[in-house]
Amino acid sequence: MASTADIRNGLCIKYNNDIFKIVEFLHVKPGKGPAFVRTKMKSLTTGKTLDNTFSAGHKIDVVRVETHTFQYLYNEGNDFHFMNTETFEQITLDKNILDAPDLLKEGTNVMVQINTETESPLSVDMPASVILEVTYTEPGVKGNTATNATKPATVETGAQVNVPLFINEGDKIKIDTASGSYVERIKE
């Protein structure tokens, strides 16, 4: 058993008969009253987020996890297939476990957290950003801008991303996987 002093981002805990991953936390020491830890947790089974407050020193049940590198192979409907890069073992994960499934390109490496007790996958950590090619976007009209004007673009995985007007079809762009937003154009 661990206590609230051990809480950190990415920690997996058992809470209310479910497994949660700590997304954000904040240790609060008010001037009056006892200290506490405010957390934002994501359920690894349903994907829902929960705000919770633990009093200082509260015992938490930590789930032991291992992180392995997997390569994304392909998807069939809501089933996404991955291969362990060390053992070449393949696993199938549901679309709901993934944070940004529409930004996954075949061959992308992701980090999969696996519960060591049950050997079941818990969550998938995407790379911080991905580089994808724009397959369709309307041409930008010069002089039609106020400031920071954007237009919708479709990338090779089928995802929709808002991009600046100077982006054209065939350009490669970097996309932040956490927010799904445009970062920069990649020059070759």
Structure in words:
Pfam families: EFP (PF01132), EFP_N (PF08207), Elong-fact-P_C (PF09285). Residues 130-185 form the Elongation factor P C-terminal domain. Belongs to the elongation factor P family. The chain is mostly beta strands. The protein has no helices and 16 strands. It has strands at 2-3, 12-15, 18-28, 36-43, 49-55, 59-62, 65-76, 79-84, 90-94, 109-115, 121-125, 129-137, 150-155, 160-164, 172-176, 181-186. It has a six-stranded antiparallel beta sheet with strand order 1-6-2-3-4-5, with no helix packed on it. A five-stranded antiparallel beta sheet has the order 9-8-7-10-11, with no helix packed on it. Strands 14-13-12-15-16 form a five-stranded antiparallel beta sheet, with no helix packed on it. It starts with a strand and ends with a strand. The mean pLDDT is 87.
Apparent shape = flat
CATH architecture group name of the largest domain = Roll
Please give the radius of gyration in angstroms.
20 Å
Low-confidence stretches: none
Strand order of the largest sheet: 1-6-2-3-4-5
The proportion of strand residues reads over 45%
| Element string (H = helix, E = strand) | EEEEEEEEEEEEEEEE
Q: Within the CATH hierarchy, at the fold level, what is the topology of the largest domain? A: SH3 type barrels
Give me the number of helical elements: 0
The helix content is under 10%
Mean pLDDT: 87
Which class of secondary structure composition applies to the elements?
A: mainly beta
Task: Explain the layout of strands and helices.
Elements: E1 2-3, E2 12-15, E3 18-28, E4 36-43, E5 49-55, E6 59-62, E7 65-76, E8 79-84, E9 90-94, E10 109-115, E11 121-125, E12 129-137, E13 150-155, E14 160-164, E15 172-176, E16 181-186
Organism: Paenimyroides marinum
Pathway: Protein biosynthesis; polypeptide chain elongation
Family: Belongs to the elongation factor P family.
